[in-house]
Amino acid sequence: MKYVIGGIVILVIIFIIISNSLNKKKINVERAWSNIDTFLQQRLDEMEALYAQLLTAFDTESEMFKEVARLRSMVGDAKSSSTPNEVLSAYNTSSSFLRGFHVENYPELRSMEQSIYTAGRTSTLETNINAARRVFNNNVSNYNLAIVNFPTSLFAKMLGHQQVLLFEADERAQSRPKMASEDYINKKYQDKLK
């Protein structure tokens, strides 16, 4: 009788240990999935802001360069004109615009700096997401192995534990993703690239 009670106590202890171990592994899987979700949300939030800043920098510099080109053209056209008033008017207009471009006041061109920063942040975020996916797959593998390995497998089904699928990339991941701003930039600067 003493041995029967001792055996039952040992079986209960083993059952509790296995149950706790499976529950811990399941929680690790859920937490790892939540981390992926968090990084994906961060990517969405941050990329929208970064690309908006990048496009604003492109637009601002583009407008500035267009104005400089317009003023140069106006001065060139005036020089070919025979009226001194037109030449003076063109020089005065361009001088007033260019007066603000003293060395210490020249507007800082930000598009290249913003492009480099955006590319760096994109790379960092993607690296974090990939690391989170690897952690998730590692936790899923540990959990799935615990479910199928003996003696845990004896209790896993009884406790309602089921295998979880590993994270796998979908078919779209086989091709290079298109950045949201590529069409905009290509369209906006297509003429300048020719």
The helix fraction, in percent, is over 70%
- Stretches where pLDDT falls below 50 for ≥5 residues? 102-106
How is the biggest beta sheet arranged? none
Which oligomeric state applies? single chain
- The separation of the N and C termini measures 94 Å
Sheet/helix structural class: mainly alpha
Strand content: under 5%
CA-atom Rg in angstroms: 33 Å
Number of strands: 0
Count of helical stretches = 5
- Overall geometric form: rod-shaped
Domain module count: 1
Indicate the mean pLDDT: 78
Q: Name the helix and strand elements from N-terminus to C-terminus, one letter apiece.
A: HHHHH
Structural overview:
It is a single chain. By secondary structure, this protein is mainly α. The protein has one domain (2-64, 110-193). Helix content is 77%, strand content 0%. It contains five helices and no strands. Helix 1 (2-80) runs antiparallel to helix 3 (111-148). The protein is rod-shaped, with a radius of gyration of 33 Å.
